Predict the structure.
Amino acid sequence: MNLFLIDLILKWIGFLFVSFVSFLGIYKEDKIVCENTNKNMSLNMTTEVIAHKTEIRYNHTKPNGDTSILVKGEDGYIVRNNDNGISRVIKNPINEVIEIGTYVEKKVAPTSSNVNTGSSFIGIMTMYYNCPNRSVCKTSSGYDLKKSVYYNDNTYGTVRILSAAHAKFPVGTIIEVNHTSGNFHGIVLDTGGSMIAAWKNGNVHIDLAIDAASEKALSYKNVEFNVKRWGF
């Protein structure tokens, strides 16, 4: 018999058999799982973290020292192909936004002779960190900035710590600082060469102590400084 004819007859018999058993519910189609048995194949990839940054915003309508997180920071990350140097950003970091209140309720000024509410100055304000690489960071008056960059004054409550020329602004002087980011009260507990040199030239330079872990050092010009109390 012709081989081609025999092959055609066998195919038709197989087709009819599969159709018959499928009709009776006997035939069941199984999935075939292909497994990659080559266990040594690997991609030379590394994941790198993109650290998020912290932004500080001052709010002069909130109580001084009141801190809240407006946006929770999240780290991002990138994947780098070490074979060809190509990297891809998988997730962008989200900067953390912290809001710090600067409003201080004005209390009745004490009646001692060291009170002078009529002294106003225009000058520059810079910021300095509380010694991020040291375990102790004391001001010239002995206050440890590692504990806090705030000070609890008996009259003005929680105030920021300032550095100024003691020849003009003695230790304990309370200064109301007015600038573009908001208003706050500070107390002079420190001094520095730049502040001293500025006052010798008839200029006012105030340095604000900030926390290196959560604040960024900035500088401002044409800042208004109103003295509320001269020294302790």
Summary: The chain is about 10% helix and 40% strand. The chain has two domains: 45-102, 107-229. The radius of gyration is 36 Å.
